[in-house]
Amino acid sequence: xxxxxxxxxLTSGGxxxxxxxxxxxxxxxxxxNGFKVKGIYRGYEGLINGEVKExxxxxxxxxxxxxxxxxxTARSAEFQTVEGRKKAYDTMQREGIDALVIIGGNGSITGxxxxxxxxxxxxxxxxxxxxxxxYGTDFTIGYDTALNTIVECVDKIRDTATSxxxxxxxxxxxxxxxxxxxxxxIASGAEAAIIPEDxxxxxxxxxxxxxxxxxxxxxxIVIVSESPKDGGAMHxxxxxxxxxxxxxxxxTILGHLQRGGSPSAYDRILASRLxxxxxxxxxxxxxxxxxxxxNDEVVYVPFSEAIKKDKPLDKSLIKVLDxxxx
Amino acid sequence: xxxxxxxxxLTSGGxxxxxxxxxxxxxxxxxxNGFKVKGIYRGYEGLINGEVKExxxxxxxxxxxxxxxxxxTARSAEFQTVEGRKKAYDTMQREGIDALVIIGGNGSITGxxxxxxxxxxxxxxxxxxxxxxxYGTDFTIGYDTALNTIVECVDKIRDTATSxxxxxxxxxxxxxxxxxxxxxxIASGAEAAIIPEDxxxxxxxxxxxxxxxxxxxxxxIVIVSESPKDGGAMHxxxxxxxxxxxxxxxxTILGHLQRGGSPSAYDRILASRLxxxxxxxxxxxxxxxxxxxxNDEVVYVPFSEAIKKDKPLDKSLIKVLDxxxx
Amino acid sequence: xxxxxxxxxLTSGGxxxxxxxxxxxxxxxxxxNGFKVKGIYRGYEGLINGEVKExxxxxxxxxxxxxxxxxxTARSAEFQTVEGRKKAYDTMQREGIDALVIIGGNGSITGxxxxxxxxxxxxxxxxxxxxxxxYGTDFTIGYDTALNTIVECVDKIRDTATSxxxxxxxxxxxxxxxxxxxxxxIASGAEAAIIPEDxxxxxxxxxxxxxxxxxxxxxxIVIVSESPKDGGAMHxxxxxxxxxxxxxxxxTILGHLQRGGSPSAYDRILASRLxxxxxxxxxxxxxxxxxxxxNDEVVYVPFSEAIKKDKPLDKSLIKVLDxxxx
Amino acid sequence: xxxxxxxxxLTSGGxxxxxxxxxxxxxxxxxxNGFKVKGIYRGYEGLINGEVKExxxxxxxxxxxxxxxxxxTARSAEFQTVEGRKKAYDTMQREGIDALVIIGGNGSITGxxxxxxxxxxxxxxxxxxxxxxxYGTDFTIGYDTALNTIVECVDKIRDTATSxxxxxxxxxxxxxxxxxxxxxxIASGAEAAIIPEDxxxxxxxxxxxxxxxxxxxxxxIVIVSESPKDGGAMHxxxxxxxxxxxxxxxxTILGHLQRGGSPSAYDRILASRLxxxxxxxxxxxxxxxxxxxxNDEVVYVPFSEAIKKDKPLDKSLIKVLDxxxx
Lengths: 326, 326, 326, 326
Fold this sequence. Notes:
The structure is a homotetramer.
Chain A: E1 6-11, H1 19-32, E2 36-40, H2 43-49, E3 52-54, H3 82-95, E4 99-104, H4 106-119, E5 123-127, H5 143-164, E6 167-172, H6 179-188, E7 192-194, H7 201-210, H8 213-216, E8 220-225, H9 232-243, E9 249-253, H10 265-283, E10 289-294, E11 297-302, H11 303-308, H12 316-324
Parallel strand pairs in A: 1-2, 1-4, 4-5, 5-10, 6-8, 6-9, 7-8
Antiparallel strand pairs in A: 2-3, 10-11
């Protein structure tokens, strides 16, 4: 295997808060261990187009507290083609990049896996997505921040829900995974959560309404995972409005504000540990693994495993939500 | 004129952060000056239905920092009828309430005005609305908090806009008044604001696009006042998408989270001053005036004036926004 | 064993954010499972003095988002005496309280253990302390919130440190445990942490200064755990000032603001799970155990174990901090 | 008078949140009006030492939301000497800087005034200080942010004060002006404020204690302006502890975290308006004036006036605080 002298780092897919902390950690830990570091802009697009710039320890000063990603990010259709990946490899050759650290979600790790197989390039993945849906890691970078952002928003919405005796359906991100919805429901004291893993539409509604919330409560909040298929919060609100016209029902779709903002303490620490862990992995000769956190310890998860399996929701939390929203 | 011994206080219309601080100020200042205080729940609805409870200084402990309104609020169709107002007056007689302090917006002050004329009841208004659209007061209770909430949200959205090189249309409240949109645009460094006072649709779009934002900027944020008439942010986003399919355009509608949350320092101080001012006004024999702030001094504004005139936007701010978003 | 019908709940020792969420969870989960719940005010003091009040599901509405503890808390010298504990037991008899849930730190759990042995009272502990220093649980209620509060404060201090090219020594809580100091240092991008577990005074200073921070950095932040013994941040600042008079050195002692504030999403979820877990434990006939979280699962930790052992810091984090602060 | 082609901008004295927004506004408004802009680092020190760099519109992108000052700041002893100011003037000549915009407090404006007199250099001042103590402007850049920061901190401290039935003395900045102390006391619902304008030590204490706070309240918060002369919060706490040993008295000194943090909406708007106003003033041929805000309009205040007079506190606010803290 070729000696690794220069490490490239990029962020890919949807941005998540803490990506900058991860870039900082990868950069500083790499330099600390004698590597050169090159930042690649706009994810795989930039790798294809040669948008590359060397990173020094100073370049990543004062970014740990910033949302978004200083390297920018994109989804790349071209990287899904053989030609695209060839160009990407050419850039690496030209720039002298010997290994790649990819910070992103499911799609980004999948891309890295294919690329690594085709070109024998050592790739290390870091789980960066607010959805928390990567297998093999307890948490992903950005999830805790998004969760706190949602909870702060729902706290605000509860003020107005209570003042007006209203039912609010609040839509949050996570179209394929209910982590954000379920946990923000518990944390905000919501009355129910409607999640993709258990979208038994009618039953949920029945359960919620059947529980007769107006007997003990004047206002209610239901957290709903976004769902392009069934229409999400708007859909459920319409149903309730139709069946119970006496209720004052409102919808708020939190949208993209869930992605940004200064990362939480946990996300900064997680990103720092995983970023340093990526360099440790390279030093140990690891390749084609995602750096994850499991039982508060840094672990290496083969790409194939990280993207193959669905990460299960903890069902015991549903019981907690049900009991505590009485 | 009858001696005033007991003052009723209520919140009406849309809730605004700082209403609790105003209730606290009215209650404590009144008690401090020898009055009894009764809280009326759910605005004029509660006055009609007799939802009344005496308030002590302890009852308003630890509410200054809370969003929403502890007295709840509602819009009352019944109070717009002669019969409704008769019932409201009966409640006052029965409860021994000699004067009313109404915290609310345009509609609430209008209701107070009619009621005061019909029944010779001393009414004092406090401007409580996030829209800042009451004439005679420089600021309304809740406006500064809503402005800060919007700006914090747009800061988060900017993180993701920048990371992805996107154009965001962010819709904020204020369907009849552009204070929130214009000022949040300046404060968040947005590229443009589309406001009800100047909704020259096409021109704005032309101006925005024509300015050729892609020459100097990769991402952009446009703040749009909600508008049931023309469709608001969604409408403008669709137009831009159609004309410029090469841009990645997104929409976020902030919705009701703009109403809640712990009030800003300014709103707490304003609510405290105006609440104490309401009791001063009663002691001075004032009636049927709204307590406002003008040039940082408490002023009395006759109801007729507060609701009659449109409060003008400061046009110089448009120039500031234009210059600083280059 | 007597059938348990009524459960008493109290908070004891230093307050921690999330205690209200825990009280809510205990109360609602207990009622949900058919128990009666009584709240005991001011910790063991209130148990001794009979400050007891029944709690309904409504009483714990809208407290999940509030800092502090609605049941108030205290340290009780009297409960450390045989007579004091006798009075406490008498209150339980009189009030018909069959089991106790104690939310607090090391001292509170120790008190529960002695009491449980003397009077055969089923006691369940919940780890509530910002210091995170209870053995057998990965996290304690309040720790994540305090960590975030510290990090937000240090972000602000960094703004001024950078603007003025200053060195700041920031003192945080945790006189016996360095979790807060070490992790807030990583999360805030601080240059060093001085912690009780490794207070090799001179070495640390040498290391910090010797690293020649002025070669690459104009400003620096050092996080110091409070220490009544050696004087904490003030002590270290004085030493640096004396040795390096050319540096502009400042101190900020964060103090009690670290305790309060709305709990983070994580602390709310943790408190909810542990509170519900306490009732599960009672239903299963458990007694004299602390409910903890380990590997993201609820676990039962015998009192003797929770208080006997020191919880170790993860030494790998020191390496992370060192590498990333270059 | 020489035609102005290039404008220099610097920040001086203690940093204040919103200074970056002001730098951005000055830069963009200047460029928009055809000027070249040069940023001067570290205040007058940098002017003396030639630390100068041209600023483009891009250089001030994404700084509106950041605390501190991107141009750094310092207090300069050398600028108080004839020689120092000579060097500063030489830098201006060498760099082709025709006019200066100085963002800072009392001392910085005083320096500008002397310099402008000696060298016939057009100087424009912007009031940037958290203390709000410049005459001729209703508000200074940074004051509203600091006020909100204090209030958020006191909200947290109140959680713990209430939970433990304690009296807290919280020390805030403003050694010569009580704006921060008095207004944060009103906004946080504190029981008293001890301010430099009315530091009738014993009377205040008597008043506070004499009011017999323990009759109606279990906890209390007193806001104290820092005071190197009399010892500030620590001093008052010691007195109360001595006279009333039965009370549990604590002190928190907020310190430098009051300076930093993302600016509030108001401070960003104020800084934007005043920064644009500085360029308007230059276009109008104004010189040696501070740009202020009065009755929500931009005004020009001659340097001599801005620094000569003490800005008075609104005494009516003392009455508000007294009435509302019952």
